[in-house]
Amino acid sequence: MHLRKDHAEDDISVLQKFVHDNPLGILTTAIKSTDHAFIQSSHIPFVLDLDANDDSSPGILRGHIAKQNPQAKALMEALAHQQTQDPDSLELPDEVLILFNGPHNHYVTPKFYTETKPASGKVVPTWNYSAVQAYGKIKVYCDSKAPETGAFLQRQVEDLSRHAERDIMGYTGGEKPTAWGVDEAPVPYVELLKKNIIGIEVRAERLQGKFKMSQEMRKGDREGVVKGFEGLGTEVGDGMARTVRERGELKDCIGEHR
């Protein structure tokens, strides 16, 4: 990830909240195989576990993939090879990447730059977005007969469903709908589904975050970008305007305290 100073986000708590709020990650692996593509990516929702005793730890990301997914097959093949050398190991030696995208991204027309464009015309189009990348080594839980695989997958599907129902859907009970739980599905049905997925766990070694939201522009241009996005009259436009304003105010605040 290219991290221009104006766009980089270094606060680990901000990055962790970003992942929590945008859990659909793109898992990318590079695994040598005679049967599968070397570089593969899959969209996977993740649960982020944090270490309550270590605020500096990026956390652990847990997810699952269908066994029929070619990326899952490559992971299982790599694990089988790894276990010929270390039978008890579930971790692969090479690093993987998980990319999380923010809820809004949009093209930025030079017409939005109401300060610089009239003065010099020295502006060009760009694209605003936000993203977080997590790097770490991956553990693969794929032996359906192993108790640790069953326990991992049960915890994973329960925690992911709870997170999505409560934090994404807002199903908290009371005046709002109650959340759906895995225990509402027949146990034999859940057990059958678990046999057709593998669990993955990535202990993040580092997180990198980027909010490319016009912070590098002059204040007048940023205000033009906010008004321009608001003028679109769309949900995405409103979300972009709000984020550009927030990141611009944060930049100004940091600048005042230097």
TrEMBL record:
Matches recorded under InterPro entries: Split_barrel_FMN-bd, TR_PAI2-type
Origin: domain of life: Eukaryota
Membrane-spanning intervals of the chain: none
Name under which the protein is recorded: Transcriptional regulator
Species per Swiss-Prot/TrEMBL record: Penicillium subrubescens
Source lineage: Eukaryota, Fungi, Dikarya, Ascomycota, Pezizomycotina
